[in-house]
Amino acid sequence: MTDPLAALGYNARTDVYGAIKRLASSGETQSGCLVQKLKARLIEAGLRPTQQRMLLGWLLFSRSHRHVSAEDLYDEATRARAHLSLATVYNTLRQFSEASLIRQVPTGGGKTYFDTNVGEHHHYLAEGEDRMWDAPAEAVEIAGKPVAPPGYEVVGVDVVVRLRRIEADS
Ligand SMILES: [Zn+2]
Asked: Residue 124 CB: number of other CB atoms within 10 A?
């Protein structure tokens, strides 16, 4: 897959923001262009494709599925020379979650990961390594459907399997 930004002479470490700024504001439509696809995806989700949403969307969706915290994404945006505040990153992530573009995976440890894979699946969380990834379907087997209290229905079941690395004896 060709990277449209690289094709324009940009790379992720230099000026993603400049490229997005140009493409977001121009009426330019390049078929197969990932930035244009991202723009269409935001519009389809009911979100206006502002530069900040485009930039954060690019960081989130231009690669394979990811699990990132707001702080991680803020650091990436800063490295891409986008002058966004952490509050803007939080707000944008919340809007993306509400639009079902991403989903939140709370870890119970006060940290929330945002997952670009919105399908129902479970996670591994390596404690102390600050790392979350998808658990294969066979890693978690839920016997029977969970029972919702009166007046509620079950929307989904998210299991976070907490891991600790085994210390090898030496
Ligand atoms: Zn996931």
From this structure: 17
